[in-house]
Amino acid sequence: MGNNIIIGGVETFSVVDYPEKLAAVIFMQGCPWRCPFCYNTAIQKIGHQTDFIWENFLEFLKERRGRLDAVVFSGGEPLVQEGLGAAMDEVRALGYQIGLHTGGYRPE
Fold first, then answer.
1. DSSP annotation of 36
2. Can you tell me the distance from the alpha carbon of 68 to that of 23, in angstroms, rounded to the nearest whole number?
3. Are strands 7-14 and 23-28 parallel, antiparallel or unpaired?
4. Contacts of residue 47, Cβ cutoff 8 Å, sequence gap at least 6
5. What is d(CA 16, CA 1) in angstroms, rounded to the nearest whole number?
């Protein structure tokens, strides 16, 4: 499931990443772009060490139901990772809306 994704970090509360919603943001590792304005250069390559555990994040989301509205998958470039769809499905099954910040990699 979503435990096949590689995360660079998490913001547990945001009022700016999903319009008119309270959200948590997951920063996914990996990005084919090298934008000069990027503020997440540390996670452009997959392999950045973190202590992120997907199952712990799901437990966090279960506890925040009714307080948070959405989860935003950001990056890096989230569409680089094959496990993204399964992770989104797990979060959606908990009742959250899904946001995706992408540069358009792999539009299919």
1. T
2. 6
3. antiparallel
4. 6, 29
5. 28
Question: Distance (Å, rounded) from C-alpha 52 to C-alpha 5?
Answer: 10
- Tens digit of pLDDT at every position of the chain (108 positions): 667 899 999 999 999 999 999 999 999 999 999 999 999 999 999 998 888 999 999 999 999 999 999 999 999 999 999 999 999 999 999 999 999 999 988 877
Spatial separation of the C-alpha atoms in residues 78 and 44, rounded to whole Å: 11
CB-neighbour burial class of residue 36 (10 A; exposed 0-12, middle 13-18, buried 19+): exposed
What span, in angstroms and rounded, lies between the C-alpha atoms of 8 and 15?
Answer: 20
Q: What Å distances lie between residue 48 and 62, 106, 107, CA to CA?
A: 27, 23, 25
Nearest Cα to 48, choosing from 28, 73, 24, 78? 28
Where b means 16+ CB within 10 Å and e means fewer, 49-76 reads eeebebeebbeebeebeeebbbbbbbbb
Quote the Cα angle for 79-80-83, to 5°.
Answer: 75
